[in-house]
Amino acid sequence: MNLRTTIAIVGAGPAGLLLGHLLAKAGIDFVIIESRSREYILGRIRAGVLEESSVEVLAKLGLDGRLKQHGLVHDGIYLQFEGTRHHVDFAELIGRTVTVYGQQQVVDDLMLAHDELGSAIYFDSGDVMPKDVETPRPSVDFGHGGIRYSVEADFIVGADGFHGVCRSIIPASEITSFERDYPFAWLGILANVAPSTDELIYALHPDGFAMHSMRSPEVSRLYLQVDPDDDIGNWSDERIWAGLHERLGLDGWTLNEGEITEKSITPMRSFVASTMNYGTLFLAGDAGHIVPPTGAKGLNSAISDVAMLGAALTAYYAGDSGPLSTYSDRALSRQWKTQYFSRWMTDMLHTSGTGTEAEFRYRGQVGQLEYVTGSERALAVLAEQYTGLPIEGV
Asked: If one looks up domain 2-49+103-178+270-344 in CATH, what number appears?
């Protein structure tokens, strides 16, 4: 079956869904094609911290109703090391905040709003394949409900994640991958217990990094640094809580325990594609770049890409092709700054190495944290980057 649309979006994660709303606001027709089921998309547990600019993007589209009701606005974070906990007050330092609101909730909000719009979203699509992106008449072929479709569009947007098909169709001669793997991973849990902290805690400990986050006043999200080759089966609930008590513990402070409802191990990687555009194909979000989760930038980077790409497509159909022609350069310029910050946070807070090398590295990390927490200027730099660099047009 042959179909025609203006923009074909591959991927119904937060990037693809948000772009659909930006296009709808501009009166631009679109179709979203997703290989996974709606239930799978809604069930994925991901990041939970929104930069102030990301909140502003959602607010401008009227997609912040539940966010305003249930999001937890935080004025800062805590950095913990050597048995001390230091507050980094973003609001006092630079007058900005972040909002804790899970990616699942963001996706659910976007999906419900698409239901109200009656958007054309093809879940459970098979053999998705963008074609002819080097021409002015690209298309996406896919199977759905036993029918083979071909959707012709002006442009295709690959918002299908790191493992998606869109980036893979760009000729090797036209794209370079910049990557860095880390010698550690995060073991993350969700627990039905009220958070033991009012704001996120990032902790450096000789045994490895730990973090206390939250999803709501009733649900806590916590992490432990582990080996990337570790098996979640090696970690009983008792062992997890013991590790969290050891790495997050302070005199006079209690870590509340509760039922663990989800646990998994996530390897850590940095990745950036050298271009976010090839012909009539544009990339957004994880299809073009990945950051380690330490700086809480993954979801926010996707929102930034989409805000810029949505504005560029809107300008194109209003007669100005300039912003679309520079989208890749502008998106990557912001992304490399984000990559720097995420790597900086990751290297500062995670242990690695063995023997005297590990001890040297750890003592250097303590010195770095002592400097950062003891310098108002260093704290302001951290605050500026953590709360988010500006997004063009927002």
From this structure: 3.50.50.60
